[in-house]
Design goal:
The chain has twelve helices and 15 strands. Helix 8 links the parallel strand 11 and strand 12. Helix 4 packs across helix 12 and helix 6 packs parallel to helix 7. The strands form four sheets. An eight-stranded mixed sheet has the order 8-9-5-10-4-11-12-15, sandwiched between helices. A three-stranded mixed sheet has the order 1-2-3, covered by helices on one side. The protein has 388 residues and is of the alpha/beta class. The chain has two domains: 84 residues, GMP Synthetase, Chain A, domain 3 (2-Layer Sandwich), CATH 3.30.300.130; 256 residues, Rossmann fold (3-Layer(aba) Sandwich). The chain binds adenosine-5'-triphosphate and magnesium ion (MG). The site of adenosine-5'-triphosphate has 21 residues, from helix 4 and helix 10.
Length: 388
Amino acid sequence: MATDTPATPQTVPSEEAVRSALATVDDPEIHRPITDLGMVKSVEIAEDGAVHVGVYLTVSGCPMRETIVTRVSEAVRAVPGVTDVAVELDVMSEEQRRELATALRGGQAEREVPFARPDSLTRVYCVASGKGGVGKSSVTVNLAAAMAADGLKVGVVDADIYGHSVPRMLGTDGRPTQVENMIMPPSAHGVKVISIGMFTPGNAPVVWRGPMLHRALQQFLADVYWGDLDVLLLDLPPGTGDIAISVAQLVPNAEILVVTTPQQAAAEVAERAGAIAVQTHQKIVGVVENMSGLPCPHCDEMLDVFGSGGGERVAEGLTRATGAEVPVLGTIPIDLRLREGGDEGKPVVLSDPDSAAGKAIHSIASKLGGRQRGLAGMSLGITPRNKF
Ligand SMILES: Nc1ncnc2c1ncn2[C@@H]1O[C@H](COP(=O)(O)OP(=O)(O)OP(=O)(O)O)[C@@H](O)[C@H]1O
Ligand SMILES: [Mg+2]
């Protein structure tokens, strides 16, 4: 800009001189020049030598704001020809903060979440519900096992950091191993699985909050070596909490699978949970109604233990809320073998595939797993002769 203008003593200071002065100002916390940190928003120099400097703070309400203002004012005031200094503060955008974080890591971007890449062929499903205990984890592990049995490459992230139950339901007490800087997940029934429970001693409860949870999930998705998956299922904790938001940020293309029971109350909360998708612009792939009826042991009737129609109601509500058709993908009856399978670590779809619950879950799995994807992920029915 004004840098080519020959500097005449006692005249208006050049922008270059002011920026050089700003380069001597260190951020009080990061201890690096504010010019290197992208914190200088603007420099305006008036005819009379008054300088206006715009400064970005990394966060709003930065406790160091006064120190920064003082340091900037002092440095600029020392430039010959400056008659006055005004400092105006602004706050960095999310994007700017990310760039700063990358710069601070020496240009090394945080490891990418492979599933978030636009060319990723992996279908990512978040299994969510508003209310606890409706069978999210049971549905997740059974869908995963059914898809793996159908020949798909499947991974499960136990994102229920407080109530991790996936490893037990899949019957694995394997621990992840570290290779170089990647985490290798254990497998059970052909399903790769990772859970916070694998990193905590015994059954110690995890008391992390927002940022730590986000970091853990980021690691599960980016630092775990999943290989080329067809499907990744995330078992979410109940409700519409931090984790759901984190997932939406980390894998924006993840689709939501809502689990509910036929009960009205459960349906209402499931609808609320699904409505979060509207805010995060995620697709709701469908609704699964679980515990829908108990097959009568003495007749062919179904007993509506938890009422009926919850799945339909949730699907209708979500269709209305999102403006996109949300189908009921299936209904799973109450089945003692499903619970036993969960307790024993052998999903019912494998131990009892012909049971009503096993069949229902298999049918849902084929709707989710068998959807179109790019040629790269499709089995062409050809076995390569040479492996290289
Ligand atoms: N269709 C079913 N028939 C019989 N038992 C079931 C069925 N679905 C789930 N259960 C049982 O209900 C209990 C709760 O299921 P699960 O843990 O899968 O629910 P969840 O939604 O993941 O719960 P949380 O919110 O605590 O994570 C488990 O004991 C499970 O075995
Ligand atoms: Mg669960």
